[in-house]
From TrEMBL:
The keyword Transmembrane helix applies. One of its GO terms (cellular component) is plasma membrane. One of its GO terms (molecular function) is spermidine transmembrane transporter activity. SUPFAM superfamilies: MFS general substrate transporter (SSF103473). This is Polyamine transporter 4. It comes from Pseudocercospora fuligena.
Amino acid sequence: MAIFVMSVQMGPAFGPLIGGFVTENISWRWTQWVILFGIAIVLTITMLMHETYKTAILQARAKRMGIDGPPREERTAAQSIKFFARQTLIRPMHMTFTEPIVTFFDIYTAFLFGLLNAFFAAFSWVFENTYGFNLGAVGLTYLGQAVGSIIGCAVIIYTSKVVWAKETDRLKESDPNARLPPERKLIIAKIGAVLLPIGLFWYGWTAQHNVHWISPVIAEGFFSCANILIFTCALMFLQDCYGAKYGASAASSNTFARYLTAFAFPLFAIQMFEGVGTGWACSILGFFSILLIPIPFLFDKYGERIRQKSKYQPDE
């Protein structure tokens, strides 16, 4: 999960780096060729990948062995449309407005995703106008975000594979079926919630003519690390709370909310930075991020009680 989330941030971090030098030294049209080459590589890798969906694997295995596979529910066309609408449209929207866990983490991660895309638009403006960087140099500043993403990913992997694994083993000594409470995983989100406004205020008030450019680049790392800590833990928390049966619907709700803000934030990001300046633009976003800090703390304290009242109890 951490690597998946990291890839969301690493692509846009390395894209401007490559695109900046390509545009500066060859032509902006060659940025499209670079993308096409990347697509060709990814599609080739995808075609060589093996099936991972459990039901499809079992059905293929049964077919090879000449036996009946897992039972498949037969539906008419109308029933299939109704099932599709209920599973992929109605349930996620219903969870958005009736499940507090889904609602508040939708708000939090939507803000994070919008913030991320707003900064992709604003980074170039800040370093070009404040420090006079050319396209290639601006692309290099995105490495701060890449480093922050890698650090955040490493923290989550270590915590998951070492800390949480040991805690789970201790629980299973007394009960083989014991699971780590979902709320335990919010510890990393709480750390990220505190780091996020620090990174925003740091970036905003050090991206100035009289401050060395390395300071806002380091602040990018703090912001990016906080982003990946909160985002990854939010997805893991939703999955643990709602299980295999309803987790996908919770994730769908979250994805819809994220991409709404990803579309909206870049529309006003540059105008906001131009209008109020880098310091106050980041401060406005920082103050809003402070308002969101209590979310992981409150669910850490009251999450179990809220889950018990949920209409979408996961399968044990």
